[in-house]
């Protein structure tokens, strides 16, 4: 139990102030986020939902979720950024990435609990000879977190999960989705 609490606190500390978007021809920094723990954010969000003034958090609506997002994945000792487009029907389109290029991607997103704004993104990346991989393989991840809206900056942060049927899921890292205005134009 102590290990889980320590990992949760470590994840919250790692996620504070981290967000890079793949804009233009490279990486551009967004404004740093305020240093709030996940627990403090949920408490403020509850107060905002109840109409308490001065929380800085606005109630989230389902209409605010579809759009363009930057997915930052911090798994083990590596970090990767990918542009994604969350469509209203739950489908996901993938854009540029600074990680390994998959041959194909299947993904779906959903809000699993509107009361707490729990969010889930399921992604299956397929790597094959098309992308210079000797032996084809798939990588499946589930991203589970909570949607936040802090003065118009929408984010989702939480844990990366490797589903293990019949066993406990493995948690190799953490993620953050940050809402971005649109996919940048490719200039090649």
UniProtKB/TrEMBL annotation:
Keywords of this entry: Signal
Signal sequence interval, chain numbering: 1-21
The keyword Signal appears for this protein: yes
Domain of life: Eukaryota
Protein's recorded name: Plastid lipid-associated protein/fibrillin conserved domain-containing protein
Native source species: Diacronema lutheri (Unicellular marine alga)
């Amino acid at each position: 139990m102590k290990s889980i609490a320590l990992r949760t606190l470590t994840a919250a500390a790692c996620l504070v102030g981290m967000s890079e978007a793949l804009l233009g021809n490279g990486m551009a920094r967004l404004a740093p986020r305020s240093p709030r723990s996940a627990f403090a954010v949920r408490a403020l969000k509850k107060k905002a939902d109840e109409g308490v003034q001065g929380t800085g958090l606005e109630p989230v609506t389902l209409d605010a979720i579809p759009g363009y997002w930057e997915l930052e994945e911090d798994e083990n000792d590596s970090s990767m950024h990918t542009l994604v487009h969350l469509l209203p029907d739950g489908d996901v389109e993938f854009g540029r990435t600074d990680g390994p290029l998959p041959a194909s991607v299947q993904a779906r997103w959903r809000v699993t609990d509107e009361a707490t704004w729990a969010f889930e993104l399921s992604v299956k990346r397929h790597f094959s000879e098309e992308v210079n991989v000797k032996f084809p393989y798939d990588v499946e991840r589930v991203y589970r977190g909570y949607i936040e809206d802090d003065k118009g900056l929408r984010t989702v942060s939480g844990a990366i999960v490797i589903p293990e049927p019949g066993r406990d899921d493995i948690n190799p890292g953490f993620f953050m989705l940050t809402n971005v205005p649109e996919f940048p134009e490719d200039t090649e």
